[in-house]
Amino acid sequence: MTKILVTGGLGFIGSHTVVELVNAGYEPVIVDDLSNSNPKILDQLTKIIGFTPVFYKLDLSDEQAVKNLAAQQPDIAGIIHFAAFKAVGESVQQPLKYYRNNFYSLFNILNAYEGKQINLVFSSSCTVYGQPDSLPVTESAPVKPAESPYGNTKQIAEEVLKDIIAAGSKFKIISLRYFNPVGAHQSALIGELPIGVPQNLVPFITQTAIGKREKITVFGDDYDTPDGSCQRDYIHVVDLAKAHVAAFKLMATDGFTGYDVFNIGTGQPNSVLEIINAFEQSTGVKLNYQIGPRRAGDIEKIWGDVTKSKNKLNWQTELDINTMMQSAWEWEKYIANNPL
Ligand code: WQD
Predict the structure, then answer these.
(1) Which amino acid residue places its CA nearest to atom 34 of ligand 1?
(2) What pTM does this model have?
């Protein structure tokens, strides 16, 4: 079986991608430092896929540790590099922590497998676009100055990957620019597990619905959008996970060489207030929310043009906003009754 190294594989997106890799007949090998994930997710994955994947607890910013990993796993054919710190606000407060971890981790992986014919999928982000000049945003839109050190690490990482391909690397590389991943696996056995107070909208919604949070604050309703609240492209995490399988299939074709980048979203905007309404409509749970001031660093609106992903990656989303909200809610109820 084709072995795929999944760095950050016990995280929210990583764990859902492990499931879709197995469904597609790949053999995942998980690496995670557990700095932002729960080791019991490995047990949850076992319940879903029927076996326990090989797992290494490992800090990818430790060069020798990564070299040892590559020596133990010389027959890796593909790599998905999720592992990175990703809290936008925290990156502004602690930039060096973010530059060190996110770059050392990437460089160590690239160095450890240099010279091998590896198909690499890089976890990038719509954050690289900043506030686009026109919407929906296409992959050819100009990359704008990053709004945070986190966004900067994604922008620079994409440049590093393009440069190594231009220098003749044997790698094939695809960067996937995620929009806003939400929801949970249909089993409700894995989902988003924020540590502490959720930064992201949907886990804050579900924690409010379950009673862990008193109310939601909508960060601003005075934006230039139909209802005044920010617009984003929310995508079901399972659809996003399947895009990684599509990326490996594309890189396995003779026609693919070098480097490419794809938007991974639905192509449809939803505002904060529309998400709150969608949650209430799809779950029957009334939410307590208030309108508050804008959050520093937020962009006003962004959603992706996914034409290239549909035509070249041969991938498009299948799950709608109601399924996103219902699955997120089922996961919140599961975790409330089965704390990990
Ligand atoms: C969405 C909207 C908030 C919480 C995320 C990731 C980022 C990147 C893109 C991967 C915004 C509003 C939120 C709340 C609110 N993903 N909001 N009240 O900021 O788009 O970025 O997706 O790279 O890493 O962080 O997502 O869920 O934080 O916010 O009103 O309590 O919800 O202002 O408009 P964001 P988010």
Answers:
(1) 230
(2) 0.97
Q: How many domains does the chain have?
A: 1
> Containing domain of residue 125, as a range?
3-182+236-265
pLDDT of residue 113: 97
Substitution candidate for ligand 1 out of 137, 200, 221 with most atoms within 8 A of CB: 200
Q: Give mean pLDDT, residues 232-240.
A: 98
In a domain, 169, yes or no: yes
Cβ neighbors of 93 (< 8 A, separation 6 or more) are none
Dihedral over alpha carbons 51, 174, 128, 269 (to 10 degrees)? -70
CATH number of 118's domain? 3.40.50.720
Is 117 inside any structural domain? yes
- Residues touching ligand 1 (Cβ under 6 Å) are 86, 88, 125-127, 178, 180, 199-201, 204, 216-219, 230, 232, 272, 295, 298
Phi, psi angles (nearest 5°) of residue 90? -65, -35
